[in-house]
C-alpha cells in the first residue's frame, strides 16, 4: 500500500486534504475522515494486528458515520452496538460471523475457550453457518475483548451482516480454491513422476537420475505441504494451544511425519519416499473440506435468504405530506412509510390507508397473496403485489420479524441435542485413542523388526481421523432447520427435533388453532331496561383493547374511552367506561349464575356485566380451518388427540363431532388446561401442545413440545418451542415427519462413521492398508456423511 492510496480501504487519497495516523509504528495516509476514524478506533481498541494480518483492503468507511456520537470507537460504542447487539434482560447478545473454521472441532474449541472467560454467559457456535451466538454481561466484559479473545486463538470475528457474511464465505472459498488448485496440479506432476519410478516406466536409469527425480518430487511437494496443508496445521496449533486435541492433530502428524521421512530418505539416498501420498492426502482432504464448505453454505443460504429481501431504502411520508427517501434502518417507531405496487415492504408496521395483496411467502412458505387493508399487520421483506399502502412503523429494522427469526434460528443451535453432545465428546476421546493406537502400533511393529512400522503408523493416523463423526449430527441438524425455515416453520431450540420424535399425544386449543379465529356475532341479548345501542358500544370499546380473536366479532367505531383496562387470561376483560367498571367474558368470570343463564333465550358464551348485574349476552361462533380435518387425520395415525378449550362444552362437542379426536374438554381455565397436560404427562405421555393465545402460555410452557400456531400472541410465541409463521396446520405433520427424517439421518451418519472406523482400523494396524488407500477412505467417509445430510433439503 503506497501513500497515494488509503491504507485502510485502498482507494485513492485526496490530494488537497491529508488524513493520517500512526499504524504499526508508521504514519499511514487515509482517504477520508471516515477511514481515519475507523483506523484510529481500531488502533485504540488494541486491534492493530488487523492491518498486519489482513489479506485484502477494508471497505471504504462512510463519512456520515462520524456524525453519531463517536460511534467509531468500534465495537464498544453503544450507538454502533444498537445496530447489531440485542438486550437479553441483564445480558447482551450478538451474532458473529467467524472466519477460519475448518471442522466441528473448531466450534468446540471456540466454545470451550470463551466459556472460561468471566462475564460470558453462553457461547453457541454453528459450524455449518460459520456463526457464533454470544451472550455476555456488559458490566463485566466488553465486546471488543471478546473479539480480541477470538483473534488470539486464531479466529476472526465480526458482527453478523448478510452481505459481510457472504463476502467472508467468498474470501474463504477463494483461499480454498487456491490451495486446492495448487495441491491438484502438484499431485498430478508428482504422481506421474513417482509412478514412473515405481513401475520402472523410465527403463534402467542410473541411481543419480533416480535421485534427481526424488529431488524434483520433493521440490514439487514442498509448496503443497507448506501452503496447501497449512489449514490443518493451524487447526492443530489452535487445539494444542488450548490444551486439547482435535481431528487436525493426527492429520498434521501424518503429513509432517511422511514429509520429513521423505526428506531424510532423499538426503541419505536410502529408504522409501511417499511424496505422491502426501500430495494426494492433502488434495483429497482439502477436497472433502471444500465440499463440506460448499454444503454448509447451501444449507445456510436457505435460512439466510430472507435477509436479502429487506431493501436498503424506504419512502418516508412526512407530516406535511411530502415524501423523502431514507435508509430502512433509519426508520423509527411511529414513522409513516408509503409502499407502492411491486415494492418490498421495508419494515414491520400496520396499515392506516390503502388495500393491496401482499406476498408473504418469504416468511411463511405459502405463495397465495394475503389481502391487506386498514389495521392489517405487514412485515419487512414481504412484497406488495398490487395497490398502495400507507404503513405506520411498529418495529425498527433491528427488531423486525425477519431479524427476530434469524436470532431465534441462531439461538436454536445453542441448545445441542444429546446426540450432538455425545458425538462431540466421543470425537475428542476418539482422537486421543487414535494417537495412542498409533503409538502402540509403531511400538509393536518396531519391536518385531518390521521395516514398514513408520508407514503402518501413518496409515493408522490417516485412516481413522474422525472427521465424519464430527460432521454427523451438526450437518443433519443444519439441513433440517433450513428445510423447516423454508416451509415457514421456525424452531427456537435445535433439541426440539429430538423431542418431537418421542411425542405420542397431541393436545390442541380450539379457538384460533383448530378454528380460523374469525369470530362472528350470531345472536345478542340485552337485559330489560338496558339501552341496547349503548351496551353494544361499551362492549365494542372494551373488546377493541383485547388481543383475543373473539374481539373481531365486536368490531365497530369506538365511541367510548376505556381506562383501567385489564385482561384475565382464559376468563375475560374488564375496564372503566365513563366512570363505570364493566366485566366482559365467560359466565364464570362475569359471575353469571346458572339461573340467569337459563333465562337468556340464546346459547350465549360471552357476557357483559357491571357491579354484578347482567347487562348483555352474546353468542359468537367460529369455523374450522380448511385443513383442520386433514391435519388431525394425519396426526391421529400415531398420536392420541386431545382438545383443551375455554369455550363451552357444547360448542366444543359440536365442533369436534366430525374430527378424529379422542378427548374433547371445554370450559377450561388456563390452570385447568395446565393440570390436564400435567395429568397426561404423569401417565407417561409425551405431549405436544398447540395454541395461540395468552391463555395458552402456561400450558405451552408445561408441554414437552410447544407449538405456537398462526398469528399467535407474543406471549404464546415466547412460551413455544416451535412457531408456525404461516397459517397452515398441515405444517405440524410436516414438522413431525422432518424430525423423524433428521433422527434417521443422524443415526445413519453416526452409524456409518463408527462402522467405517471399526472396519478400517484392523486393516490399518495390520499393515494391509497403504497410506494412499487410507487417504481415499477417510476423505470419502466425510463426503458421504455431508452428502447424506444434504438429502434432507430435497425431501
SSE layout and pairing:
Blueprint: E1 19-23, E2 26-30, H1 33-44, H2 49-53, H3 78-81, E3 85-88, E4 91-99, H4 104-115, E5 120-126, E6 131-136, H5 143-152, E7 156-159, H6 162-198, H7 207-228, H8 230-241, H9 248-268, H10 275-304, E8 313-317, E9 323-327, E10 336-339, E11 349-353, E12 356-359, H11 361-364, E13 370-372, E14 377-378, E15 383-386, E16 389-393, H12 401-412, H13 418-447, H14 453-463, H15 467-486, E17 489-491, H16 496-500, E18 505-508, H17 510-514, E19 520-526, H18 532-543, E20 562-568, E21 572-577, E22 580-585, H19 587-590, H20 594-598, E23 606-610, E24 613-621, H21 628-636, E25 640-644, H22 649-656, E26 663-665, H23 670-682, E27 687-691, H24 697-702, E28 705-708, H25 714-719, E29 722-724, H26 731-765, H27 771-790
Parallel strand pairs: 18-25, 18-27, 25-26, 27-28, 28-29
Antiparallel strand pairs: 1-2, 3-4, 4-6, 4-7, 5-6, 8-9, 10-16, 11-14, 11-16, 12-13, 12-15, 17-29, 19-24, 20-21, 21-22, 22-23, 23-24
Amino acid at each position: 500500500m503506497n501513500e497515494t492510496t488509503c491504507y485502510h480501504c485502498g482507494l485513492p487519497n485526496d490530494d488537497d486534504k491529508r488524513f493520517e495516523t500512526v499504524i504499526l509504528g508508521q504514519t499511514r495516509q487515509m482517504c477520508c475522515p471516515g477511514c481515519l476514524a475507523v483506523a484510529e478506533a481500531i488502533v485504540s481498541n488494541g486491534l492493530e494486528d488487523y492491518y498486519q494480518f489482513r489479506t485484502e483492503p477494508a471497505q471504504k468507511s462512510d463519512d456520515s458515520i462520524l456524525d453519531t456520537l463517536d460511534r467509531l470507537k468500534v465495537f464498544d460504542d453503544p450507538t454502533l452496538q444498537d445496530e447489531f447487539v440485542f438486550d437479553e434482560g441483564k445480558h447482551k447478545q450478538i451474532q458473529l460471523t467467524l472466519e477460519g473454521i475448518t471442522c466441528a472441532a473448531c466450534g468446540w474449541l471456540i466454545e470451550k475457550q470463551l466459556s472460561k472467560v468471566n462475564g460470558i454467559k453462553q457461547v453457541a457456535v454453528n459450524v455449518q453457518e460459520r456463526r457464533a451466538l454470544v451472550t455476555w454481561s456488559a458490566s463485566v466484559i466488553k465486546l471488543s475483548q471478546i473479539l480480541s479473545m477470538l483473534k488470539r486463538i486464531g479466529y476472526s470475528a465480526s458482527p453478523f451482516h448478510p452481505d459481510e457474511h457472504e463476502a467472508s464465505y467468498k474470501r474463504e472459498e477463494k483461499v480454498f480454491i487456491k490451495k486446492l488448485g495448487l495441491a491438484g496440479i502438484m499431485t498430478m506432476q508428482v504422481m506421474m513422476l513417482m509412478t514412473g519410478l515405481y513401475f520402472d516406466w523410465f527403463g534402467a536409469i542410473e541411481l543419480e537420475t533416480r535421485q534427481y527425480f526424488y529431488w524434483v518430487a520433493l521440490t514439487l511437494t514442498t509448496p503443497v505441504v507448506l501452503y496447501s496443508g497449512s489449514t490443518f496445521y493451524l487447526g492443530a496449533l489452535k487445539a494444542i494451544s488450548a490444551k486439547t486435541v482435535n481431528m487436525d492433530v493426527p492429520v498434521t502428524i501424518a503429513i509432517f511425519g511422511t514429509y520429513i521421512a521423505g526428506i531424510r530418505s532423499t538426503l541419505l539416498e536410502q529408504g522409501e519416499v511417499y511424496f505422491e501420498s502426501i500430495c494426494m492426502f492433502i488434495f483429497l482432504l482439502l477436497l472433502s473440506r471444500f465440499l463440506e464448505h460448499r454444503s454448509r453454505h447451501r444449507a445456510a443460504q436457505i435460512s439466510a435468504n430472507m435477509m436479502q429481501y429487506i431493501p436498503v431504502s424506504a419512502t418516508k411520508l412526512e407530516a406535511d405530506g411530502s415524501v423523502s427517501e431514507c435508509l430502512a434502518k433509519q426508520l423509527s417507531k411511529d414513522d409513516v412509510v408509503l409502499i407502492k405496487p411491486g415494492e418490498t415492504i421495508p419494515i414491520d408496521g400496520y396499515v392506516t390507508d390503502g388495500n393491496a395483496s401482499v406476498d408473504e411467502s418469504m416468511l411463511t412458505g405459502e405463495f397465495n397473496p394475503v389481502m391487506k387493508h386498514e389495521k392489517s399487520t405487514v412485515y419487512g421483506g414481504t412484497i406488495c403485489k398490487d395497490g398502495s399502502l400507507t404503513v405506520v412503523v411498529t418495529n425498527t429494522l433491528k427488531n423486525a420479524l425477519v431479524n427476530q427469526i434469524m436470532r431465534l434460528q441462531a439461538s436454536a443451535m445453542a441448545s445441542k441435542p444429546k446426540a450432538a453432545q455425545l458425538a462431540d465428546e466421543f470425537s475428542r476421546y476418539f482422537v486421543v485413542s487414535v494417537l495412542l493406537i498409533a503409538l502402540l502400533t509403531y511400538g509393536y511393529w518396531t519391536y518385531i523388526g518390521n521395516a514398514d512400522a513408520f508407514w503402518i503408523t501413518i496409515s493408522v493416523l490417516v485412516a481413522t481421523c474422525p472427521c465424519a463423526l464430527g460432521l454427523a449430527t451438526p450437518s443433519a441438524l443444519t439441513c433440517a432447520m433450513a428445510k423447516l425455515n423454508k416451509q415457514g416453520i421456525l424452531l427456537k431450540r435445535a433439541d426440539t427435533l429430538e423431542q418431537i420424535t418421542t411425542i405420542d399425544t397431541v393436545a390442541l386449543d380450539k379457538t384460533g388453532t383448530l378454528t380460523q379465529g374469525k369470530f362472528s356475532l350470531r345472536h345478542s341479548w340485552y337485559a330489560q331496561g338496558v339501552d341496547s345501542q349503548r351496551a353494544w358500544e361499551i362492549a365494542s370499546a372494551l373488546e377493541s383493547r383485547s388481543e383475543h380473536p373473539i374481539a373481531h366479532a365486536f368490531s365497530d367505531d369506538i365511541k367510548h374511552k376505556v381506562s383501567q383496562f385489564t385482561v384475565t387470561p382464559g376468563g375475560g376483560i374488564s375496564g372503566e367506561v365513563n366512570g363505570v367498571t364493566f366485566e366482559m367474558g365467560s359466565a364464570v368470570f362475569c359471575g353469571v349464575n346458572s339461573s340467569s343463564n337459563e333465562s337468556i333465550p340464546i346459547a350465549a358464551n360471552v357476557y357483559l356485566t357491571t357491579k354484578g348485574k347482567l347487562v348483555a349476552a352474546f353468542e359468537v361462533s367460529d369455523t374450522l380451518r380448511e385443513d383442520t380435518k386433514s391435519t388431525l387425520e394425519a396426526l391421529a395415525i400415531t398420536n392420541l388427540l386431545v382438545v383443551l378449550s375455554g369455550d363451552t362444552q357444547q360448542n366444543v362437542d359440536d365442533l369436534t363431532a366430525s374430527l378424529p379426536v379422542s378427548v374433547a374438554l371445554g370450559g377450561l381455565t388456563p390452570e385447568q388446561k395446565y393440570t390436564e397436560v400435567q395429568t397426561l404427562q404423569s401417565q407417561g405421555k409425551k405431549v405436544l401442545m398447540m395454541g395461540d393465545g395468552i391463555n395458552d402460555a402456561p400450558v405451552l410452557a408445561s408441554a414437552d413440545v410447544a407449538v405456537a400456531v398462526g398469528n399467535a400472541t407474543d406471549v404464546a410465541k415466547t412460551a413455544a418451542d416451535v412457531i408456525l409463521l404461516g397459517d397452515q396446520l398441515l405444517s405440524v405433520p410436516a414438522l413431525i415427519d422432518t424430525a423423524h427424517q433428521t433422527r434417521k439421518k443422524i443415526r445413519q451418519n453416526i452409524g456409518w462413521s463408527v462402522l467405517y472406523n471399526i472396519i478400517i482400523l484392523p486393516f490399518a494396524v495390520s499393515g494391509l492398508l497403504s497410506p494412499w488407500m487410507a487417504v481415499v477412505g477417510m476423505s470419502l467417509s466425510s463426503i458421504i456423511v455431508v452428502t447424506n445430510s444434504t438429502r434432507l433439503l430435497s425431501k
